[in-house]
Amino acid sequence: MSETYLLEGIRVVELATFVFAPAAGTILGDFGAEVVHIEHPQNGDAYRYLPQLPPLPECHENYCWILTARGKKSIALDVRRPEGRAVAMDLVRGADVFITNLHPSVLAKLGMRYEDVAPANPRLIYAHATGYGDAGDEVEKPGYDATAWWARSGLMDSVRPGGGDFGFATAGMGDNPSAAALFGAIALALFDRERTGRGRRV
User: Fold this and answer.
1) What is the CA angle 174-178-183, rounded to 5?
2) How far apart, in Å, are the Cα atoms of 192 and each of 26, 92, 101, 130?
3) Mind listing the pLDDT tens digit for each residue in 84-121?
4) Do residues 174 and 132 lie in contact, with contact meaning Cβ atoms separated by under 8 Å?
5) Fewer Cβ atoms within 10 A, N terminus or C terminus of the chain?
6) CB atoms within 10 A of CB 195
7) Which stretch of DSSP H or E encloses residue 24?
């Protein structure tokens, strides 16, 4: 008897890079979703090159890319060009989930905000990963493990010995649990869509 995956038949489109947002897509793919990852046509996703930077250990396998891109399909699109955006919109029209971690100003420039794409696919689950939320003075700031998750949250202070030195953040220590939370939000939105027939933004 063949194994059936829970999310078989669900299509996910990613316009994202590095860990937080793509790792949520990876979990969806692990449960059987088809995940299509959009990359720049000239250089691909910058995350492909992370293991080449010191002090990451040398390895014949691209372990960073395997961590968040395993099982995915990739398509090379320049979404800044009208023809590239048109193809991206065709993908979104046929998708169940769209995942992005681009800054709001970039999404506005590309015409890929929720309010831009939802009319083309009312059943779409639009998942936007951000470091500092959707509004306010810091919405455009990049959210890194060491800053947004480790330092600004207070974790860096709360886990150090009394009066001792601060600990260092390790790579992906905030991205991966945040991705698991985003996966949960997407899964709940898909469940809600089964009841209501409507998509939503998470």
Assistant:
1) 155
2) 21, 19, 23, 22
3) 999 999 999 999 999 999 999 999 999 999 999 999 99
4) no
5) N
6) 7
7) helix 20-30
Tell me the two tokens of residue 147: 């800053």
Active site residues: 175
For the segment 120-148, what is each residue's pLDDT rounded down to a tens digit?
Answer: 999 999 999 998 988 899 999 988 888 88
Q: What is the pTM of this model?
A: 0.92
Cα 14 → chain centroid: 7
Beta strands 34-39 and 73-76 are parallel
Give the other-Cβ count within 10 Å of 42's Cβ.
7
Cα(71)–Cα(57) distance, rounded to whole angstroms?
23
The H or E element containing residue 97 is strand 97-100
CB 101 within 8 A of CB 129: yes
